[in-house]
Write a structure and sequence with these properties.
The complex is a heterodimer of chains A (511) and B (413). Chain A is of the alpha/beta class and 511 residues long. Helix content of chain A is 32%, strand content 27%. Classes of the chains: A alpha/beta (511), B mainly alpha (413).
Chain lengths: 511, 413
């Protein structure tokens, strides 16, 4: 028993309308590297937030035993006090401050409120040597690459006398060299007695570094196993192996001519202009066809879609677009819409809706000119159009003058879809169309997607849920690290084969 | 009605429609501002022993505060879009100075000078709009710089002296009244005589307001939209009508309708229509409500913001002309702190700091509340510090009410 540092038992966490975790058990041994694997949305990050006190005691059910003691963390400070430190996927460094200032942020080396800079910088230098970062402690963080910033985060954790280090996708944004260095560092920390929990999508890393692996799926623990007994295939089948129930409406596709072709499409990151997010992607969408785009977090799915949609994301975009066989230019969102392309975002609250306005004004937002004459909007026609969508999309609201921010997620999604259908597009790109909505509303959305395809529209569905793609798509592209790694007809696709393609490493080919 | 857009059928009976409840459209936040104005008026009428509502004083309030109201119209649009303009006071001064040079020193015909001044304002707005919209500097900074820059321009044009006097036409616009084309009629008793033409105009305005309201209601009913119950609708027709009639009769008893009131009325009606019904107006709300969503809906966000600042520049030039005409002098310190009054008017009138919310009529009402406070305080003889104190608390209370009501509705959701 003494070798168990952490035991989480019976953890259940509910968000309004969604059970994110259901009776999850996790046992971590002292001094091991323990990987947690699961699809996007399986509950990994939620579990780590429960552990670190981001979701304080009382907001979840179940027990956390740490070092043999029952813990009731009421916030991050509590858990850090006990030596549990979490490093999030989105690094949380203040980029204008120095490395030393970041390391001791919130934990200043001070006496009576006055900071001792000599002690701060000296202590920071020592920590930097420990993580193998050859930088001066006074260097501003903004001058460091992502890999080095990751090391600063670890140094910061070490400054808090960490005993259980949690890393959420630590290598997702790193290149191979930085990843290797980071993984080596973690092995070194393990030898010093620091326990690590790693959330990772990169199965080769999981196999390479961890002592044990726990699989989460749909908010439940599936199994925990010693890595020596595992293969990547076994992990994949654990991650995806859920029953395919009858959750998808039947649909016989009527596939027609090519509608949109994306050729040799390359997109670079706006924040790191030398990093390609999408590389030489080629996709073809046909009329009446529902095409899936599968890829793990960070594979470049949204980046690909948004860059096609009027270059609304990314820089140095190159490649060609063909609509109905003719090359088109879509340099702005307006041009893309005018060419009959629509993009319904994955984050409807941030990018999709004006939450303080009513349903009708959201529905008309992308095609206001259709309701206008000489620049003046016909408010009555607008009402009528919105009301027709309310009926046909089954938006549950007594009136189209209800404020969108007060609708449920499923109904908000229907408003987003209505908005784009009203632009009368030929190509609809739906990014995570069922994220965060309940099962019943999902079925309705699938039915709508089928109806749109039957009207002859080409549909591209981006989804993290493989069963969803297998359930509704006629053909599925897989994307791994910005490259198209597969183009699989539904009949030939399985979750395992897709997951293999989605995690496939494509070697850089020297130009 | 006119031909419907192609894919929209006409008069289709949408199922589920009749289940929509007829809810009473009584929005506390919307009505709050009018109630606040009413309370302010009542308080100061009591404090001044009725002098506040005297014919001459009502006329004074409008004429004295017109330029702030003009600025408030432009300001509320900018605030709806999520920006701010701190430079309008300086732009008022600069355009007054520009106009003075053209009219007084160069002796140009006044219509040409007026157009040139409006163009000057547009240019100033384009300058600021460029930096905000296309260069991406926060409007707070750009217009803070503009506040200094255009004050400096004013001094460069004028030196340290004022230029005047202005042509009669400009003074009439700012200070003058519509001539009594039809003579006076007696109203009988203590009311004395009043200008017939003004009263006829007032009656026509009231009739027009009622007709528009009835037509809107009929349109909504034809499209099976929810409407107010008849009693509330009639209340919303009759109360404003009575207020307009009261105002007009009082003004007619004094001299006539002031020309600035005519100008203001045109601006208010015009900009209300733009914000409610024009594609451009709707895009302002979209930009302020959710910038990213607007961008991804194909709204040309930068161009919307740019033209808003151009518009603000033109309205500042209008205010500059009125102010200079009223003083009959373009002075280097003209327009000092006008921006604060205009911004306060917009916020008191229900605009939200985060953008996306606000109304032209609200800003005008907010401006009138401050105008009534200023004027009433003057009649009573309050000290400047008392007036500032009261205005400060009113602004704070208005925004606190806004935040409170938002939190309340958020909690209920």
């Amino acid at each position: 028993m003494t070798d168990t540092i952490l035991r989480m038992s019976g953890i259940t966490k509910t968000f309004p309308g969604v059970k994110a975790l259901q009776d999850v058990n996790l046992e971590v041994r002292r001094g091991e590297i323990h990987s947690i694997c699961g699809e996007n949305g399986a509950g990994k990050s939620t579990l780590m937030k429960v552990l670190s006190g981001v979701y304080p005691h009382g907001t979840y059910e179940g027990d956390i035993q740490y070092d043999g003691e029952l813990c009731h963390f009421s916030g991050i400070r509590d858990s850090e006090h006990r030596g549990i430190v979490i490093i999030h996927q989105e690094l949380a460094l203040a980029s204008n401050l120095s490395i030393a200032e970041n390391i001791f942020l919130g934990n200043e080396q001070a006496k009576n409120g006055w900071i001792n800079w000599n002690r701060t910088n000296a202590a920071a230098d020592q920590l930097l040597r420990r993580v193998g970062l050859a930088e001066s402690a006074v260097t501003p963080v903004v001058e460091l690459g992502v890999g080095k910033q990751q090391l600063v985060e670890i140094a910061k954790a070490l400054s808090k006398e960490v005993r259980l280090l949690i890393l959420d996708e630590p290598t997702a944004a790193l290149n191979d060299e930085d990843s290797a260095h980071l993984l080596n560092l973690l092995r070194g920390l393990r030898d010093e007695g620091i326990t690590c929990v790693i959330i990772s999508h990169k199965l080769n890393e999981v196999m390479g570094i961890s002592d044990r692996v726990t699989i989460l799926r749909d908010g439940r623990t599936i199994w925990t196993e010693n890595t020596v007994n595992l293969t990547e295939e076994k992990i994949i089948s654990g991650m995806v192996g859920r029953d395919m129930e009858h959750r998808y409406p039947d649909h016989t596709p009527k596939i027609g001519e090519e509608s949109l072709r994306i050729a040799d499409w390359t997109v670079y990151s706006p924040t790191q202009p030398d990093r390609a997010l999408v590389r030489n992607a080629n996709l073809t969408l046909r009329r009446g066809e529902i095409v899936g785009l599968a890829g793990l977090m960070g594979a470049g799915r949204t980046e690909l879609a948004m860059s096609v949609f009027g270059r609304s994301y990314g820089v140095n975009i190159s490649g060609r677009l063909f609509k109905d066989g003719k090359e088109i230019q879509a340099r702005s969102v307006r041009e893309a819409i005018d060419h009959g392309i629509a993009y319904a975002t994955e984050d409807r609250k941030r990018y999709g809706l004006n939450l303080i306005e009513d349903i009708k004004r959201n529905v008309s937002a992308a095609a206001l000119s259709k309701l206008a004459k000489g620049g003046w909007v016909d408010g009555n026609e607008e009402f009528k159009v919105a009301d027709e969508f309310r009926a046909s999309m089954n938006i549950k609201s007594p009136t189209v003058e209800a404020i969108v921010g007060k609708l449920s997620g499923g109904n908000q999604q229907k408003v987003v879809l209505s908005k784009w259908i009203f632009t009368d597009p030929d190509v609809l790109i739906l990014d995570e169309p069922t994220r965060g909505i309940d099962v019943g509303a999902k079925y309705e959305i699938y039915t709508i997607i089928n109806r749109l395809a039957d009207e002859g529209k080409a549909i591209l569905v981006i989804s993290s849920e493989l069963p969803e793609l297998l359930g509704i798509c006629d053909r599925i592209y897989t994307l791994s690290a910005g490259r198209i790694t597969g183009d699989v007809p539904r009949a030939e696709a399985t979750q395992e084969s897709l997951m293999t393609l989605m995690t496939k490493e494509v070697q850089e080919v020297a130009p | 009605m006119t031909a419907a857009p192609a894919q929209v059928g006409k008069g289709a009976n949408v199922p589920g429609r009749d289940t929509a409840p007829r809810r009473v459209n009584f929005d506390l936040k919307q009505s709050g501002i009018y109630i606040a104005l009413a309370i302010t008026v009542v308080i100061f009428t009591a404090l001044t022993g009725g002098d506040l509502l005297a014919p001459q004083n009502l006329s004074n309030i409008i004429v004295q505060y017109s330029y702030i109201l003009v600025l408030a119209i432009g300001m509320v649009l900018i605030i709806i879009a999520g920006h701010i303009d701190l430079s309008v006071g300086s732009v008022v001064a600069a355009s007054g100075a520009f106009a003075a040079v053209m009219m007084v020193e160069m002796d140009l015909a006044w219509p040409i000078a007026v157009l040139a001044t409006l163009a000057f304002g547009a240019l100033v707005g384009a300058w600021q709009g460029y930096w905000v919209a296309y260069f991406g500097i926060p409007a707070f900074i750009v217009t803070l710089a503009g506040m200094l820059l255009f004050r400096a321009v004013t001094y460069m044009i004028l030196g340290n002296k004022g230029i005047g006097p202005f042509p009669d036409e400009i003074r009439t616009l700012a200070n003058g009244f519509i001539p009594g084309w039809m003579g006076n009629i007696g109203l009988g008793g203590a009311l004395g005589g009043a200008d017939l033409f003004s009263i006829i105009v007032g009656v026509l305005v009231v009739v027009a307001m009622a007709v528009v309201q009835f037509r809107t209601r009929a349109g909504r009913i034809r499209y099976s939209q929810a409407v107010d119950p008849m009693w509330l609708f009639l209340l919303k027709v009759i109360v404003p009508a009575l207020l307009v009639l009261f105002l007009v009769v009082q003004l007619a008893r004094f001299r006539n309708l002031p020309w600035v009131l005519v100008l203001l009325a045109i601006l208010v009606v015009g900009y209300t229509m733009v914000t409610n019904r024009a594609v451009f107006g709707r895009q302002i709300y979209a930009v302020g409500g959710n910038l990213q969503a607007a961008t991804l809906s194909g709204v040309k966000v930068k161009s919307v913001v740019f033209w808003l600042f151009v518009n603000m520049g033109v309205l500042s030039a209008v205010a500059g002309l009125i102010f200079a005409g009223r003083l009959n002098l373009a002075g280097p310190t003209a327009g000092n702190s006008f921006e604060l009054d205009a911004i306060a008017a917009a916020f008191i009138g229900g605009a939200a700091v985060q953008g996306g919310v606000g109304k032209v009529v609200g800003a005008i009402t907010g401006g009138l509340i401050m105008g009534v406070i200023n004027n009433g305080a003057g009649l009573i003889g309050w000290q400047t510090e008392t007036v500032m104190l009261v205005k400060g608390f009113v602004l704070l209370a208005a925004v606190a009410f806004d935040v409170w009501s938002k939190r309340r509705t958020a909690g209920a959701a």
